[in-house]
Amino acid sequence: MSSGQGVRRRPIAQLQAGERVEDQVYRLAAKDLRTTSNGSLYIHAVIADATGQMTARLWQASQELYDSIPEGGLLHFRGRVENYKGSRQFIIDAVRQVEPGSYDPADFLPATSQDVDTLWEEVKELLRGIRHRELLNLVGKFVNDPQFVADFKRAPAAVQLHHAYVGGLVEHTRNLLRLARVVCPLYPQISPDLVLAGIFLHDVGKVRELRYQTNFEYTNEGQLIGHIVQCVLWVHDKCRQIEQESGQPFPAEVEMALKHIILSHHGKYEFGSPRLPATGEAIMVHYLDNLDAKLAMVREAIAADTDPASDWTGYLKALESRVFKPNVISGRRPGPQTD
Amino acid sequence: MSSGQGVRRRPIAQLQAGERVEDQVYRLAAKDLRTTSNGSLYIHAVIADATGQMTARLWQASQELYDSIPEGGLLHFRGRVENYKGSRQFIIDAVRQVEPGSYDPADFLPATSQDVDTLWEEVKELLRGIRHRELLNLVGKFVNDPQFVADFKRAPAAVQLHHAYVGGLVEHTRNLLRLARVVCPLYPQISPDLVLAGIFLHDVGKVRELRYQTNFEYTNEGQLIGHIVQCVLWVHDKCRQIEQESGQPFPAEVEMALKHIILSHHGKYEFGSPRLPATGEAIMVHYLDNLDAKLAMVREAIAADTDPASDWTGYLKALESRVFKPNVISGRRPGPQTD
Amino acid sequence: MSSGQGVRRRPIAQLQAGERVEDQVYRLAAKDLRTTSNGSLYIHAVIADATGQMTARLWQASQELYDSIPEGGLLHFRGRVENYKGSRQFIIDAVRQVEPGSYDPADFLPATSQDVDTLWEEVKELLRGIRHRELLNLVGKFVNDPQFVADFKRAPAAVQLHHAYVGGLVEHTRNLLRLARVVCPLYPQISPDLVLAGIFLHDVGKVRELRYQTNFEYTNEGQLIGHIVQCVLWVHDKCRQIEQESGQPFPAEVEMALKHIILSHHGKYEFGSPRLPATGEAIMVHYLDNLDAKLAMVREAIAADTDPASDWTGYLKALESRVFKPNVISGRRPGPQTD
Amino acid sequence: MSSGQGVRRRPIAQLQAGERVEDQVYRLAAKDLRTTSNGSLYIHAVIADATGQMTARLWQASQELYDSIPEGGLLHFRGRVENYKGSRQFIIDAVRQVEPGSYDPADFLPATSQDVDTLWEEVKELLRGIRHRELLNLVGKFVNDPQFVADFKRAPAAVQLHHAYVGGLVEHTRNLLRLARVVCPLYPQISPDLVLAGIFLHDVGKVRELRYQTNFEYTNEGQLIGHIVQCVLWVHDKCRQIEQESGQPFPAEVEMALKHIILSHHGKYEFGSPRLPATGEAIMVHYLDNLDAKLAMVREAIAADTDPASDWTGYLKALESRVFKPNVISGRRPGPQTD
Amino acid sequence: MSSGQGVRRRPIAQLQAGERVEDQVYRLAAKDLRTTSNGSLYIHAVIADATGQMTARLWQASQELYDSIPEGGLLHFRGRVENYKGSRQFIIDAVRQVEPGSYDPADFLPATSQDVDTLWEEVKELLRGIRHRELLNLVGKFVNDPQFVADFKRAPAAVQLHHAYVGGLVEHTRNLLRLARVVCPLYPQISPDLVLAGIFLHDVGKVRELRYQTNFEYTNEGQLIGHIVQCVLWVHDKCRQIEQESGQPFPAEVEMALKHIILSHHGKYEFGSPRLPATGEAIMVHYLDNLDAKLAMVREAIAADTDPASDWTGYLKALESRVFKPNVISGRRPGPQTD
Amino acid sequence: MSSGQGVRRRPIAQLQAGERVEDQVYRLAAKDLRTTSNGSLYIHAVIADATGQMTARLWQASQELYDSIPEGGLLHFRGRVENYKGSRQFIIDAVRQVEPGSYDPADFLPATSQDVDTLWEEVKELLRGIRHRELLNLVGKFVNDPQFVADFKRAPAAVQLHHAYVGGLVEHTRNLLRLARVVCPLYPQISPDLVLAGIFLHDVGKVRELRYQTNFEYTNEGQLIGHIVQCVLWVHDKCRQIEQESGQPFPAEVEMALKHIILSHHGKYEFGSPRLPATGEAIMVHYLDNLDAKLAMVREAIAADTDPASDWTGYLKALESRVFKPNVISGRRPGPQTD
């Protein structure tokens, strides 16, 4: 066990300009070897943990030192926090390797600001609103699977588009279930049971499609099969399992309608849905999913924006637009942010 | 005043097989001259009023009689209701012309099944939730304009896609405001005031884009300018009017953000939006609008479907799909319907 | 048992102008009530069986007679074959109902001109070329399932695009396996085992996607799930079954690569593939499938063409073109054909 | 007033290799800190004024000096012009800050090579060809507004596609009016009055859509509303103003047809036009606008090209092509150009 | 020679209501057998010649008579012109066959209202503006080829989109040359010689792509090769011919630039251009061609419109819009027209 | 003749770590001036010949030395091969210029690993299968033209998509002819003669479209006309030549069908085909061409891949996907490769 474990943890989001840091572990998110005006070398870096990231500099560097630092890996840092052009900047005095196994790299990945246990409890609470016995049974096959729950609570909702952080999937799912709870009563012809089950299950394939232990990336199966079909296969297996356990056939049309929601929830062929929504429930899941995802993109783009001089974020491909940052009602404009 | 006025009105939706009809005014929605197996001519027609439509036949017809009946016009009908292959069918014994001016053709157009006054009251009630003074003032310029209110309560939401009936616009608007009321609290970063005002105003241009007195069609201005830009012009004029009355400038950024919601609410250039949503509020209005419109298409397609032998409606271009009709949870399948 | 059974069967393709037909069962593929120049009614119809179709007329008809004949149903026909403007035409003297159950409507659907048992034997022979033990085992789960084999030998390859006839799927599959046998040796980096198994399994979902007993149409599941995902689910189930029987895990990467071939074989998102080909084997299956399907469309369009005056067939949407009929090498032009 | 003002102005386009420059103000269009082969630092820069731009180098630089020079700002330069590989290059001996307010940054933006006053006079002269009284009146509301005229004469026609320089809008407008004058007589069914007014007004929104004082960029309103709708709103306001002044309604169909020209002049939804051209006049404005814009892109791409070794410019996204530079009739190829 | 030849020709455009027609040859553009209210049959037809078309009726018809009249063929007509609901209608008393060879069916095809010889003279006059010797020589190879000239003067510019009438190609070409003459001087960097030659030659392939003797249709080569490549091949052959005759190479870059204009003049790949315009001359030919073609569509759509009750023509696919008919400047609306 | 010629040639693919290289000529494919950790400069380079490429470093460099080395040019290299992180790396001790004319730069371009003479012999052998006399004659006009054969054997099949190396065109053509030989017998309705001739000729335009002496790039004619039309023109000229020599017309429909294959072989307008395949032969050439090209892309992407840690290559635009590298049947994964 590394001695670093005994040190009080200073999350990056809480570091103050002027503060000294004696021994903290962060992730080296990026590194770059540069030359100063007098010809000496320095490393320009980005350090990160679950709470955020910060620019860092290590003066008097060498090519050898630079090569010895693993990009993406964890390191012990000693140094101080300066104020540079209005932003915090970490001046690295020394780094040393982290003893293998002493830290979980996943703790240094971006993570939801919300408590995942609370999110998960709310998800379960909202799912209890399902009255259809078999659908509730099916949902239970996932909710009561400890491995699934552990994965589901860690998985991001995407690699980079929205909710792309540890816990993002459970947060996104909770949001959608909340939406469904208030929207379904306005459309009596829609079955809330199918919508609730569809929302919970529509993205569970991401638990398998993505790897999210030390970084976010697609698994081979994620790329060759895709989370939509992985999800349908998973639901399929659970239905068969229920049939075996109960000795009763799972209602075929219910299973079919649920799979249809999953298969069509991207809403367009070019987004990887092999079917287009053909039921009210599929349409509702598709639009609620989009609403929450797009609003998350807006919120995240504004939060990540680093140019206080502009009223606009950079271009977001998924929106085919930049995002306008000011709140015109309150007159509030996003304040200065560190780069 | 036509003598027909004294007769008790028998809405088409209430006519029973076996019932005799002595003198009722309906709209002749369609007509066709056909030949029977013995060579005589008969007219195959569709009669309609605000409550629905029914197949009708007039035996022993002639080309002259056929030519004398105006398609789309109103007529007095005498006849009886038969049962034909499980559906109601009207056997016309006689028709006679309606005295000009004695009936309002609009009363025989398809109309919302809900009470427009009640819908309008709810719209007004929901709009009272706007707290921003100038936005509330702007909305008031429409709400307190009797001519606008009269038109708004009559206008359909579209010529044929969804809510394509008298009162459809106020019904669709009410639905969206209801959605906003329950959805906005889930997204604190979104301004509910802009969303409510944006929803109310995003389609008011349809009052001018469409003609909906005796049938539904686009006005010239509707086709050359489009309801989106008409709507922005209307909001623009009202803002100027407020400025003149108050002597104060209307907050420029609020006006701009509101116009942006209107301009971008179709969400795609190819659907006639000259801008794409670039604020959270614009994104929310766009998706809520789509959600309600698409669910209305599903509901209307199932309601209009006339083939009980199929589990599917016909193809809907806007959904790029047919709609699956059965309710798989209840096991209920849409029952037999008249053609 | 109907007396018609004792009558020698006269396939439509073999009927000669001048021939009398005393009692033959055909399918009434289409019907239309028309008026002659002297005002009397006649029925213009199309009669069909597995070998082809022919225009037919029934003089001295009535509306009642017309109504009593079920479009798409089977009837006993009496009449004669005439020559009309260079084409054969059936003059109906009398029709009578077919005793329910005495004939299989499927026998009167369009069917492959080849022998399905021979096709199936060749398919099995070609599949024996698979050397990978588990893949061979998996293929065997289908080949040795009598219900599957019966369905597979009957299913069309599509509802209307290509090989849209009874036995079309086995014929198309045989063609693809033949192609693979000669093409694979030219590309040593490609696994012939994956290609052969992928070809055999890529379309088996059509057995479930389509109904093809009395006519060709999609099942509900076919429309909501689609044959591509149905196919993957089926393969998935068989892999699980093999695992249960053998107690050994099915090689995960082989299963994944096979599913990928199936999921991507349409080659484009807008054709319903949720994945695009990302392996050499998937690319090969995609192009061989297209090659055989498109050449079948050309052959079928020329065969079905009824206008000898033109060198071109009608427009084929799938080719975005009409097809040029003449064989420019032989100088042969498609001869006169009956309408 | 800076002493620099007394120095004779040496436009960049006129600088000769070998010339010494004692004190000239240029815009620092770009800067880059680089290392020489002996390890010392130098700045690689681009200097610019309204007449063109040139590569520049400052030897013996430091990070501090580099940081102190504002990219995009104005500076006094001392140095000399060298010949480097056949191109001119500015060797900077010294730079010093410009006294705030002593120079107008706009004078150093790229500008039309033509005289804007002459262009504007020709625009006014061509607009006098409008015979329709109200259209002429409407045009006059803009032509006689000094603030509008000042802006219109400065505005570029675009941020970067074509005529992207100070005065570009008036130059492009003049070109279009000239085109209309010669083309309209060939199409008698087209109203030249609508075409002339439509051309003049179709892009006036750019005066508000763009900022073009010290650099070219979109205003917030430009991005949220777009110049097309801004333009329609402006025309709308002027029509209302005319009505107020005259007490007469502005002819509604003329206003509508004019707005339609503006709304549809991009010709495609995906280029931001919410309507497609539906009148002969709108079609004519659309094609003439494209003709002049595309020919300007060709001319500007060839002028900006810096590779005399190639017969082709770089790829132009708007043309989906590179441009072939040689004049094949004269045999003339674009000569060597400075980078 | 048929006796009909001695009769004074009465063009359809000049027939007056009330006029008797003793013996006139027209084309039977369409025919339909219908039943009157008393059960007797009549033929509803459309008769046509180069000047226009008119509805016609033949009472007391029979199936045999109906069958004996060739649709699309020429007939002698006897009858009278009536006024029916405000439109002219031809009442046919008798028809008789036209002696084969006595009339040229082409004389009864739609034709330009202009004099083709005059158009052709103007084309030649405009082409004399080419100063480049070889280009002039190349153009002369076509202009001086009597067979080409005869075909060029007859060919339509398209089968149905625009200028789809005999002489349409020469009319469209004349228009484009006129445009080039006035537009080229505004763009000095463009070679007028290439533009003039490019315009003349860009569509000559249509002479071979289309058949236009008795109706308008594509030739086999037109469909398999396309007029764009046919045109390039033709120019290619003429260049080779010039080289053989002169013993001098044709300037390769001029030939290449000219072929490029032809290949790219449709401006988009999906319209069949294998190259996109990459020179100023190609861009100019592309936009002028579109301008004239689209304005012709507008003019022809308004002229062909038969619904005086609407301000809009039907939908035009090439414009993706309907056309607004009124002239808002003059206030003139298209008058009532015969159907 | 340079003394280097006497040195035994060491192809890059055969260089071993630890080996000394005294005097070898390679192409300097790329160069980059970098700074070491102690501030001195070094050159990071890539050296290449026909067999492959390797990273190289030259320590103690200067800007002057760097500037004196021509990127893309040939140099004599002295140095040694090291092992660096598992990959070979060339340490350059000295370079000197190559005497002009002493080496052919083309020998250092990427080249097919197969023997072009053998490929060409096989092409000729396969073409002898053509039985149609005129087609064989036409093919002979190319096969017997020494200049054509020399070019054809050198040309790459593309600039970068697939078979982008010297000899790539003959290799790709050989592959297609092999495919045709085995596939044609499965489709008796297809003319193998047209397919064989079409395959051989479909890409011969690339001989003229591309320049491939010292690097791969498009000729001006290649860019303005395109290899598809160049190819048609070439075939056209050869047909005319045959006609002149034989005094017989070349069969027009055969020529037309062959040109159609060439024009349509890209299969889509947006890929530059001005026609879409409308004959069975054109469809076959299109799909076989795609099959071989796409499989080559897969093979080349895997071969060029430099990241052994990933199971995926980089993204391939033409496949719209990355490629999965492992052979799942053999379990073999692509081994470590030099960067």
Describe this structure as you would to a colleague.
Six copies of one chain form a homohexamer. Chain A is of the alpha+beta class and 339 residues long. Chain A has helices at 63-68, 116-127, 133-143, 146-154, 168-183, 192-202, 206-209, 220-224, 227-246, 252-264, 280-304; strands at residues 20-35, 41-49, 52-58, 74-84, 87-97, 210-211, 217-218, 312-316, 321-324. In chain A, strands 1-2-3-5-4 form a five-stranded mixed β-barrel. In chain A, strands 6-7 form a two-stranded antiparallel sheet. In chain A, α2 (116-127) runs parallel beside α5 (168-183), α6 packs across α10 and α9 runs antiparallel to α10 (252-264). The longest helix of chain A is centred in the last third of the chain and has 25 residues, at 280-304. The two termini of chain A are 34 Å apart. Chains in contact: A-B, A-C, A-D, A-F, B-C, B-D, B-E, C-E, C-F, D-E, D-F, E-F.
